[in-house]
Structure formats: structure tokens, C-alpha cells
Amino acid sequence: MKHNFLGFIAIALLMLFASTARAKDVYFDSKWTLWQNADILIWTPEKEPPIDPKEFCLSLKRNNTGIGDPKCRLFGEWERDSLAMRYANWLASNMEPGLDAHYLKARHPSMAAKIQAIEDKIVLFITDKGSSLQIAIFDEKSSEPRAAGSVPKMADKIAQGDEIASTFFDRHTKRRLSKEERQKMETEPDDLYKETPHFRSWAGVSAGYAQAQIPLTPSNWYKRRVKSHVGNYRVTRDSVSLWNFIDDSTPLFTLYAGGIWFGFIGGEIFYRYSNHDVKIDEKDPVYEELDHWDFTQHEIGLNVMLSRTYSPLKWMDLHLFAFLGFQYSFYSEDIELKDSKKKPSKEYETRFKTEDPYKGALFGIGTQCVFLEHYGLSVRTGISSRGKDIYTEPSPEAAAEPTTIGASTVDWFISVGLEYHWTPFR
User: Fold this and answer.
1) What value does the CA radius of gyration of the chain take, rounded to a whole number of Å?
2) H or E element: which one contains 181?
3) pTM of the prediction?
4) 37: left (phi over 0), alpha (psi -120 to 50) or beta
């Protein structure tokens, strides 16, 4: 019997807690400022105010010890203003759970001007919905409510004031500014600008893939050079592109570091590494002496970046960017004969050589997803080029110029990187 009674009590308490949780509902709550020694203006379309202003000030003191000595009164100026009361009645009819603040915005210019003229006072809007009271809070920073919700309606106005105070005014307070400080604050940038660090920097490592064919372009544009092979250690269809000599499709690894000023413009230095096999003609008997032959590509460069930042989640920032840069490319050859071959062939000795360095450009787009302000995941794609000036000053005494290898080489790349972000200057 005792256990049944205790179970009944527990169920009753749970039901009471559930009904209270359902009755108290905050629709939205932005980062509005609660000033110390606040002036609270109570605005209601009801004939009888749902709370007593003096008792509500005591409720604020009981629920928030940092609020100091608040002043509360009915906002008679707006209650006697026909335009303000039309907006109050419209709010009372349209406030409901799930609505965003901008749907409740005061759209009449005169009403918006009234809200923005309340200076550092807080307007507490209250309307009676029968079993509950709907609440909205306004300040000078926006013509839409900064917070809205509902609380259960109570017969005791002291308890009613405590309920509103604990639901909407339980936050840190800030020192109220003087008139001179307020004038200075009006000349400062908005919150979004001030929250953007002066300089954001990062370092990262990425892995990706590069190939000659640019996506969404016809494959026959590249067929000649991609299908080309090197015969007799130096013979190809043409020598304009390096992809006539070495494989274009290869993994790509990058080390990079950079920074953005004011969330808009920045730069990045990088080092890229890839390895490319020479496309030898397997049918050519001259290669029977060869064990392997490849080139390692090393690239260093600098990008200029334009960026735009979004914050879809509190713990994640999304940086979209475009980049344009230049690079220098160097190739180191790795070639070796079979152990059984003691002396290389004449063709081996006259094989083709790459030029050093190649100069080129690259451009593309990308995104950085930064979690908890420091840990980033980056994806980028673009087009990269490298080439060599084939023009030489003519001379009647000069011998025939050798062929320039890789005068113009272009590829497409995509990469995914892991990054660490930090803000050295605040």
C-alpha cells in the first residue's frame, strides 16, 4: 500500500512538471541586452494589466541579483497611441510557437521608428490568451521582437511576475551606458562586424587528385596528349604539354598556410607534391634495359583569396572562398636501369629532359568548415597551369634550338584537407 501511494505521488509530480513544461514555452530568444538598473516599460492591449509593475520589479530582483534597482511602469504613451495599439492587437493575434522573429516585425515605418526611439529601455509586451500569457520583448536595436514566448496564466500577480522574470530575464546584465557612451557606441560597427576577427590564420595538409581533363569538357580535347607515349626515350607526337611524356592522372598532396583579413581578403602559401610515371612505349625494345622511370613534381606558390563567412550553426563557421595565384614547378627525375644492364644505351643518354623551373598560374573555388573555432575541413577545386617561354632571341651564329619540353601544361585538381585555425590578433 505504501509503495502504491509513493508511486501515485511520483506520477502526479511528473504530470505536474510535464504540464508546466508545456505551458512555459520560449518561441525564440536572441542576444538582447539586459541592462543593470533597467527601465522596463510594460505594454499590453488588455484593459487590466496582467502584472503589477511594482511587484514585477521585486520579481526581477528576486530572480536576478545582478539587475540592480530596476524601474517598471505601464507604457501609457503607446497604450494611448492608435498606431502602436493596432500593432499590439496584430501581435496578439499572430504570435504563436514556431514563428521566427522577422514574421512579427513592425512593418509600418512610423511604428518601427517608435521602437528604435526607446533608447536603452526594454519594452515588455504582454497579452492574455486565456490559460496563458504571451510575452514579447523589444529594444531599440530591432523593429522585431528580440524574444517571445508564453507562460502559464496565474491568479496571483506576484507569482505571475516571478514566472515571467525567471523565463525571460534570467541572464547576465551589463552596466548601463551614459549618454556619451551611447553616442560613441552608435558610431561603432555592428555586432557581426565586431565579431569578425581582424586576422584569421590557418595551416593544413590535404590529399587530392589531379588530371589533364577538366570536368564537363569533351574528352577528345585531351585524347592526343593523354594517349601519347614516349618512344626511343624522347619521341612523342608533340612536346607542347608535359602530359605527352608523363602520366597526368595522379594523387596530389599539399602543405599550406594562410590567413584572411577582416573575413574578406587574404593569401596563402603552398607546397604541392605529386609523382608521375613516364609513359614509355612498352613495345619499343629499347626499354628492355629500363627498370623504372618517373618524375617527382614539386610546386611552390602563392594564392590571393577572397572569402565570405557564414555561421549556420553556433559551433560551426562556413568560409566560402575563391583563389587566384602563381606557382613555380620543378621536376626531379628518378630513372634506373636493370641490374643486368651494365652500360646504358645511346638513346638512354639522349633522353628528354624537363625544363626548370616552369612558371604557371592556378585559380579555383573552395570552402572551409571550421568547427569550434579551430578545427577545419577544407574542400577545393581548380585549374592549374605550368609553362615555359619558348621564345629566344634570334642569332645567326646559334645552332638549332632544342625542342622545349612542356611549354604549356594544364590540369584540373580537387583536394580535401584537414586544417587548424587560430586568431593571433583580436
Assistant:
1) 36
2) helix 179-186
3) 0.56
4) left
